[in-house]
Specification:
- This protein is mostly beta strands.
- The chain is built from one helix and eleven strands.
- The longest helix has 5 residues.
- The radius of gyration is 13 Å and the shape is globular.
- The N and C termini lie far apart (40 Å).
- The relative contact order is 0.31.
């Protein structure tokens, strides 16, 4: 079992930055591929970014490439999402996800999900 708790959301002006954190319980964090997803009101949940278990490979949605950076600290059981140059269309609830396979995480079929943190970008 893995429990995921997101934090760091909030209200920011367009062009600003936020860093989201996702803290994971358990001693096997380093086994898991970690991902971030988001869901805006009235829209389906969409993939944002993922990172391999060791942190050597990262994956991004085209909409956030060059603006968002995913990273992880296995010693702290935490994954981060640094979001720069934020746009109003980035407004959504952001969710952390964990699973053992990259394709499972990227495909939105992870076994473990956090409760989400709200990000609101004002224009």
């Amino acid at each position: 079992q893995v429990r995921l708790v997101e934090s760091g959301g909030g209200l920011v002006q367009a062009g600003g930055s936020l860093r989201l954190s996702c803290a994971a319980s358990g001693r096997t964090f380093s086994r898991y591929v970690m991902g971030w997803f988001r869901q805006a009101p009235g829209k389906e949940r969409e993939f944002v970014a993922a990172i391999s278990s060791s942190g050597d490979k990262t994956y991004y949605a085209d909409s956030v490439k060059g603006r968002f950076t995913i990273s992880r600290d296995n010693a702290k059981n935490t994954v981060y999402l640094q979001m720069n140059s934020l746009k109003p269309e980035d407004t959504a609830v952001y969710y952390c996800a964990a699973d053992e396979l990259v394709r499972t995480v990227v495909g939105g079929r992870s076994d473990y999900w956090g409760q989400g943190t709200q990000v609101t970008v004002s224009s």
